[in-house]
Fold this sequence. Notes:
By secondary structure, this protein is α/β, with parallel strands linked by helices.
Amino acid sequence: MPNNDIEINTICSDLESSKFTLLSSAHDHNERAQSDRHVARKLPKIKIFGTGGTIASKGASSSHTAGYHVDLTIQELLESIPDISGVCDIDYEQICNVDSKEIDEDSLLKIYAGVSSALQNFDGIVITHGTDTMAETTFFIESTIDSGDVPIVFVGSMRPSTSVSADGPMNLYQAICIAADKQSRGRGVLVSLNDQISAGYYITKTNANSLDSFNVRQGYLGNFVNNEVHYYWPPVKPEVCHKFKLALLPTDDKDATKFTATSFPTVHVLYGHQTLSPELVRLVAQSCEGLVIATMGAGSLPSAVNDVVLELSIPIVYSKRSMDGMVPTANLPKQKSGKRSNIIASGFLNPEKSRILLQLCLFEKFGLSEIREVFKGAYGG
Ligand SMILES: NC(=O)C[C@H](N)C(=O)O
């Protein structure tokens, strides 16, 4: 992790002679607060966290857009963007540096802790992250952090830094400008990718390769064109999002963002298909505290699978493998006795977001009816 203030020459061709100063996270905050630069210009202070992903990756050559590996620190990434010294003052920190397939609960909690702490001292937060699992992290952060007015902007890229027309530097530049823009206040967790601004709660990665990788059926919130942020709507947050107050064990009485490592209950996801084995469902259910099944339509699974599910005692969420639409409660299989079963409809939540929501519910020790209430927020239950 970098320790000192560093001067950076931008590589943007029309700004070749410009310089800006990056403040490393180790830099003393009091010194920063007292600096004339801050006081005189009153620029927004933006915290930038690096976690890895394609945006921080290098490939074998400029034509390679696959088979690359994470190899750039957040400091190096910041060296590749246009001058932002007139936009904001930035401070940066490397949380981890991995492909997002490696993001686990430990990384999620590190991001959670970093964001919680930065919310107290910064006007905006930017997090670089791989796109493959970005939607899971944004869903987790929106579900666990009340960001008030402070924008939390996630950003990634689809091409590695070494490729021709790498999209990372522009995406990162835009994310920082979005986080620094007053219009972004009161919008919660945002995602900036391919000139579009979306709600972190709703995004889904819908294209495994193209630059326009995130499709948001609920609509984009705005876009970024030629240094301008344009929102289509006034500030709004996802109404259906259940906010969890994570009961983490503090290790420092004075600092609520420091806590002991915690593991979340295990929740597995099974993918529904013709001939899905009831025995597989039974077997998987033995090794988890909750299960999500990507059903084939709006809650449909072979009857033999439904029969096994109804015998189990753990909560089982019926989600869907179709990208759009929802699983309504009316489609859930019922107990012969007429009693409510252990099955919960995911509403419009996809399997991976349903998994995180169920995990959070189980972490909070919610019973079946409370879990149902939480999923009702997403029109399931
Ligand atoms: N475009 C990307 O960022 C994909 C990469 N595999 C990741 O999620 O880390």
